[in-house]
Amino acid sequence: MIRDYVPTLESVTAIDGSILDGVSATTLWTLHNRATEAKRSDGAIRDPWAVTLFDAIEYDYLKFGRPNQSHALRARAFDTATAEYLTAHPKAAVVALAEGLQTSLWRLDRMGVADELTWYSIDLPPVMALREQLLPADDRIVALAQSALDLSWMDRVDAEHGVFITAEGLLMYLDPEHVTALITECAARFPGGRMMFDSIPHWLSRRTMKGLKLSDRYVTPLMPFALTADEGLELADRIPGVAAAHDIPLPRGRGLFNALFWPPLDRVPLHRRNRPSITLLEFAS
């Protein structure tokens, strides 16, 4: 059964987005990009709830610079992999680490793969309070207001029917040793499960460490963790319990985003080393 929620502005109250700061505020950056795409007739994603959240949260979104397709295309890549897993494991637990204002559950609902799952939504208390206020209550959701690095969330996850862990837009903000420890613990606690995350290239990480300005009034938080596509594949050899690693291509978008992710370009080592990457890990049973 597809639960076809129809988001309306009448069901929400205007919210001041400045209550979020630091890394938590980056969820407004991704929301800006995703919702702007969803509003376009030729947009890279259909995401009615993103549009509703965007319109309900008052914020200086343009301080993030001009919107682009990047986060919409990333969301589609995560949706595709999650839906594939849920098709084989319809009662699985999906763990959304640092979920922010993502609206993946409702997009998966419209794909017809989310009826029997349990969705673990994890983020810091201010973000979770916004989600509770602006998104519909749902008996499939287990909301956990805590850091993804507070591993007590693992004790709440029912892994009987499989586990798919997403870390969308999270790991780049963590120290490398914390990333390794998180993946290692996930592999140990959820054998047979999967984990998916995106990474930035090393050149971009270095830029953020020096102060990357998206506009004259916004500097991104530091992003100390970087990973190339090939380094992601090497995690199967480096981290105990990781049985396989896959490089997941970003869907192609319009214009420049169509050209940049033209598959033959990936055969050029310079391009492959310097593009963003998405990695899907399979944990050993």
Fold topology:
Layout: E1 15-16, H1 26-39, H2 48-56, E2 57-58, H3 70-88, E3 93-97, H4 104-111, E4 118-123, H5 125-134, E5 141-145, E6 163-167, H6 176-189, E7 194-199, H7 202-210, E8 213-215, E9 218-219, H8 229-233, H9 235-238, E10 242-247, H10 255-260, H11 269-274, E11 277-283
Parallel strand pairs: 1-2, 3-4, 3-6, 4-5, 6-7
Antiparallel strand pairs: 7-11, 8-9, 10-11
Helix pairs in contact: 1-2, 1-3, 3-4
Distance separating the two termini: 31 Å
Share in helix: 25-40%
Spatial ordering of strands, largest sheet: 5-4-3-6-7-11-10
Outline:
globular
Structural class: alpha/beta
Q: Which residues sit in consecutive blocks of at least 5 with pLDDT less than 50?
A: none
CATH topology: Rossmann fold
GO biological process, one term: methylation
Keywords: Methyltransferase, Transferase
Protein name: O-methyltransferase OMT
GO molecular function: methyltransferase activity
